[in-house]
Amino acid sequence: MNQAITISNGRLIDPANDIDEITDLHILNDLVIAIGQPPRGFSADLTIDASNRIICPGLIDLSAKTREPGQEQKGTIASETAAAASGGITTLCCPPNTDPVIDSVAVVELVQHKAKEAGFARILPVGAMTKGLKGETLSEMAALKEAGCIAVGNASHPIGNTLIQRRAMEYAATFGITTFLRSEDRHLKNNGCVHEGRISTLLGLPGIPEAAEAVAVARDLALAEQTGARIHFRGLSTGIATRMISEAWRHNPAHSADVAIYHLFLTENDLDGFNSDCHVLPPLRTTTDRELLRQALANGVINAICSDHQPHEPEAKMSPFQSTATGISGLDSLLGLTLKLVQEGVMPLSDAIARLTSGPAKIIGLPLGQLSVGATADVCIFDPDQPWQLLADNMHSKGHNTPFLGWEFTGQVTHTLFEGNLVYQRDSKT
Amino acid sequence: MHSHNIQLDREGRLRHFLTTEDLSREILTEILDTAESFAGVSERSVKKVPLCRGKVVANLFFETSTRTRTTFELAAKRLSADVLSLNISASSTSKGETLLDTLRNLEAMHCDMFVVRHNESGAAHFIANHAAPGVAVINAGDGRHAHPTQAMLDMFTIRRHKKEFVGLRVAIVGDILHSRVARSQIIALNTLGTSEVRVIAPRTLLPAELRMMGVHVYHDLDEGIKDVDVIIMLRLQKERMQGALLPSEYEYFRLYGLTEERLQVAKPDAIVMHPGPINRGVEMDSEVADGPRSVILEQVSNGIAVRMAVMSITMSNSGGQAK
Predict the structure, then answer these.
(1) CATH classification of the domain holding A19
(2) DSSP 8-state assignment for residue B235
(3) What's the domain count of chain A?
(4) What is the ipTM of this complex?
(5) Is the peptide bond before B277 cis (omega within 30 degrees of 0)?
(6) Test the A interface: residue of B18, B101, B121, B206 with most A CBs within 10 Å
């Protein structure tokens, strides 16, 4: 069935094509077929009035866990891709630490099949660099790539053995596979659970020094140079790491990095009172780190913002701080928080949108995150002036574990189109 | 969100005692004054007051302890409360029961107070956050975080000997990094107006950014205890040698062990304290531990009065109508 959609009179912001103008976007089936004037003979089955709204490419989230397979009590591919759609996100890269681990073609196919069945958003799996994420033997990376993995990574299990890390990177480089690295020295991390600093001292919680990240980033940069592998640093947390990569990028601009949105807002001070919703890895750091991360994001040293979505059932956060599960449910607040960066003057709107669209698209090397004629019709439409508040009751993710509950935002998604299908429309009439 | 202090009720009175942090000098002084009034009880032939008659106190020890548990038991009994002592470390947690499940089960037994010791920092806060209204929670030590009743019995001991905190110089020596006692002491000493709080340790045993807690940091014992009024020695756990934090007990004693000879640089009337149990020949030699300046055994008996004070104050403020 052919479906023709016109999104009319919106402010189209498409950073990949350097477009920011009020215009119409025309979609036929799953593709963008025209911008501005419709093609001759085009008649829209559905017209979405986007006056006073922003039309941008569907957002790409480089790290979001759906919890399926293995932890369906926390979330499923259906529940979390629906939540993604409500947040304007049409592409989710899911890390390999599912159960079973994404280290075989069968699991890759399962995940993609479930996502297709649900139909809200695309899931692009990240394969495991080593079998079972154990850091011992290589996974079948070439097969994982063929099956649809857009990268291989270590998820939250950094490879301790530097020789294995070298070989995994070398092997990935052979097939032109990008490596997603969560860089952390596990010896320095030890049993730490919060940033080593003021709050770890006051609360008596074992700390993770900044050097745990810096040492590993230095190691991985050296190995990238040695092996020729293309690396993407996932979820940086420290100012020192941003200084190191900013220097390294000058020699090799092919590498990239992202930051979890919560690291741009929260700091160790938010752990006060043992707030387990702020128990994340890498840990929330100092206000100085937060400022340096914001700077690195604004000047493009960090190329993408991700939600680092990790939904949990309530019980997972109901114990003393150190025993609680780590992570924040982030799909519902990704765009709201990113727009807050713009409202706080960190970066212009088009750059902020770029960090959620063209930036991550370039990292995964796919022609997504853009609204060129002929591109896949993944579209996010949002009302930039609409105030709203994040409440457990209005969250779409199955996991309500977020320290942003109660926060007020300006700018809310009204429609999301995924491959030309309207997969989300906000209930309230406007 | 941060301003809410779960230790206080709406009128600003103490309803849980979880940490010495965020409490006013008035509240800490009230604890010390109340303890003073109970100090005589132990010396009487009938060692009981009826303040908490009919109340049920549950001692929840998720981590083993002899002295702290015993003094809490004695304190509760002297207040005429019924005491339930549970050693939970082995039983329920190993069966997969969560802390919250354990809590709900105990609440079903209608306890009025939980005295909690747990190996995780924040455990007492967690229990206070989830306990039924009207149940008071007392932290008997959580991870590396806090041990407020130990700190207050130390304050009580210091006040008995030195009268005022203003003008005092106090040195805390040893493993500050892993010590919940030291954290609680530093906060209490500063709140009570101590003129100078010093900590003395090698850098491997000091937590990050300790100076923001209002202490002067020393790495040399002789320099650090010069002209001090009070020396608090902390216990050194044997496992610190395994984690490469220290080379040997021998070297530790040589650099940080307290001897009569080294004590000479402190004020002539300086007192020596230790939360116990002492490793003789590691933190201090026996001559000091058993010597005239040592108040270590007094600390133990003061522990009962201070715990009675904390229990009676929180019990009366948590809706538990102490008469």
Answers:
(1) 2.30.40.10
(2) P
(3) 2
(4) 0.91
(5) yes
(6) B121
